[in-house]
Amino acid sequence: MKKHNFYAGPSILPEITLEKTAEAIHDFAGTGISLMSISHRSKEFVAVMDEAQQLFKDLLNIPEGYSVLFLGGGASTQFAMIPYNLLSTKAAYLNTGAWSTKAIKEAKLFGKVDVVASSEDKNFSYIPKGYSIPEDADYFHITTNNTIYGSEIKYDMDSPVPLIADMSSDILSRPVDVSKYALIYGGAQKNLAPAGVAFVIIRDDILGKVDRAIPTMLNYQTHISKGSMFNTPPVFAVFALLQTLRWLKDLGGVDAMHRINEKKAALLYDEIERNSFFKGTVNAEDRSIMNVCFVMKSGMEAKEKAFLDFATEKGMVGIKGHRSVGGFRASLYNALPMESVEALVACMRQFESANK
Q: For the chain, give me the number of helices (H) and strands (E)?
């Protein structure tokens, strides 16, 4: 039976990424040496790093004056690196879910944090509107896509202070005007690569403005000056990331991917609205196109396990909601084919028919 992978992360990767990476494990770039054993200083791997950084810039139309970094430690390390490098007096944060909550906690270790708005009052089921960004803040931080609750900021906002965005789960899923951001970061294990590498897109001129001493490994300037090669980078994950970037370029780039993603999300959201058993958990205007969260309608809660078992029998993998919220979650990342969304929709219809 074909399996349909809806895991929220680590998650589905393009088949070509799996194939090329598997080949490289046995023989990397014709060297006769495994990717798992190659020196990161070898000319073959340096070429991988250089191409990955350039492709990232090309696919997102990143302007001059920005650096692209591939670092260890995941997005969670960035929660601390950002205030360490940028927070002098006060930082502003928008709280839209679990990950922004964790980012706020880390920032408070380094200075004052102004939470300008939060959707916690309604279980993070919407994106706050109508708030003001303090003009005396060192930066304003947002999380564009919320994997646990299924909301997404799908536009590039104007900010009077440097705008920083955690795009762990929607990077390269839609066009982004990078020039509106001072820093974009995220873990790669959603849309890019296996777990183990984080990406950082940083405008170089925002650095060097804090008085504190910054440990070498936590200083962005360290990694910019050495092209992400100050220490041994996550070689395996960076190689896989490059294969995904090549795949995306061949597909037609971010614009083409966005059109596909919108169709996948629309198909599933339409079925949730139509089906007599399910309902969405996020305001329609704020629904994520990456992580679709839904629950049983009122009075149908007893059917939750039955549907999960039914879906599992039909080959649906990873659709159980996050342990903190329950229900269901279908992650529609770039590499998930339309065929899998169609299969999930068919499964939901079959369950409805069998349980009327």
A: 9, 14
- The yes or no reply on domain 4-11+253-354 and CATH 3.90.1150.10 is yes
Alpha-carbon distance of 172 to 340, in angstroms, equals: 20
Q: Which of 190, 247, 264, 320 is catalytic?
A: 190
Catalytically annotated residue among 166, 264, 286, 320: 166
Q: What is the pLDDT along the chain (356 residues), one digit of tens a residue?
A: 899 999 999 999 999 999 999 999 999 999 999 999 999 999 999 999 999 999 999 999 999 999 999 999 999 999 999 999 999 999 999 999 999 999 999 999 999 999 999 999 999 999 999 999 999 999 999 999 999 999 999 999 999 999 999 999 999 999 999 999 999 999 999 999 999 999 999 999 999 999 999 999 999 999 999 999 999 999 999 999 999 999 999 999 999 999 999 999 999 999 999 999 999 999 999 999 999 999 999 999 999 999 999 999 999 999 999 888 889 999 999 999 999 999 999 999 999 999 98
Q: Is 211 a catalytic residue?
A: no
CATH topology of domain 15-251: Aspartate Aminotransferase; domain 2 (3.40.640)
- Residue 190 catalytic? yes
Q: Is the pTM of this model over 0.85?
A: yes
- Sequence-ordered alpha helix ranges (H) in the chain: 15-26, 43-59, 74-86, 98-107, 220-225, 235-251, 253-274, 304-313, 338-354
- Active-site choice (99, 247, 264, 286): 99
